[in-house]
Amino acid sequence: MGAGRAYLRPAGGRGRPALYDRREIANALLFLARTGCQWRYLPDRYPPWPAMWQQWRRWRDGKRQVWRRAMALLGAEVRLNHGRRATPSMVIIDGQTVRGGRAGPTFHNAGGRGGRTVGAKRTILVEILWLPVAARVDPAKPHDVRAGRELLDERLGDLPRVQAVVADRGYRGLAKLAARRQIRLDIKAPPKGSSGFVPNRPAMAGPEHAFAQLGRWRRLSRCYEGTPESARAWLEVAAFGCLLGRL
């Protein structure tokens, strides 16, 4: 698993020895994200699902932020392979509203255009190679600017070289954050009279491409999770898998 491997191993020297190889558990989680199968239907070549669920929960809730850090390491390796510096100087932000697919208690609510989609809002940062850099999941109702502001506030500290944020006109409300962080906010507005996705805005094609690649991971076909933390973690797992494919 290349650069992400160090964050998928147990911390050395303390606690009981691991019963199952962390790499096999990570492979199983990637399989779950890619195929969308249920935990109990995992192939026998993987460790028992209750053990994997426990490890998944620790990686999701732990302070080490395993998938977030693995994404950062793997993304840096891909960038270095393309002759670029490890961290980007520009990021592109965009959001996507997805339908919820879970019965019972959940964080989903109505949002999207006209409030017709009951589900969740995914917000991602991508860089110039269209690699996912960071991800966040919120209820669908809050405005894109709120989700974008919280994601940038959370992650810009890990991206010290960022000098510009590119976004569409729905994110004009990020101007105050950009001024406070002393970075440039570059709004890419479509031509007057146009609607929907406009292909002549190359910068904004990055998030569209990333969302299209993430959409091939069946766990993300809808938001099946009951909490934003689980939804974010599965989004990060899928992003990690996309980065593996770029090595």
How would you briefly describe this protein structure?
It contains seven helices and six strands.
The main pleated sheet reads as: 6 strands, mixed
Taken as a percent bin, the fraction of beta residues is 15-25%
CATH class: Alpha Beta
Global outline: globular
Number of domains: 1
Based on CA atoms alone, the radius of gyration comes out at 18 Å
- Into which percent range does the helicity of residues fall? 25-40%
Number of H- or I-type helical stretches: 7
Give a verbal description of the structure.
This protein is α/β, with parallel strands linked by helices and 247 residues long. It has a single domain, classed as Ribonuclease H-like superfamily/Ribonuclease H (Nucleotidyltransferase, domain 5, 2-Layer Sandwich). Helices cover 37% and strands 16% of the residues. It has 7 helices and 6 strands; from the N terminus they run αααββββαβαβαα. The chain has helices at 22-35, 49-61, 66-81, 144-155, 175-181, 205-214, 228-246; strands at residues 90-99, 109-111, 117-126, 132-139, 164-167, 184-187. Strands 1, 2, 3, 4, 5 and 6 form a 6-stranded mixed β-sheet that branches. Helix 1 (22-35) packs across helix 7. It starts with 21 loop residues before the first helix and ends with a helix.
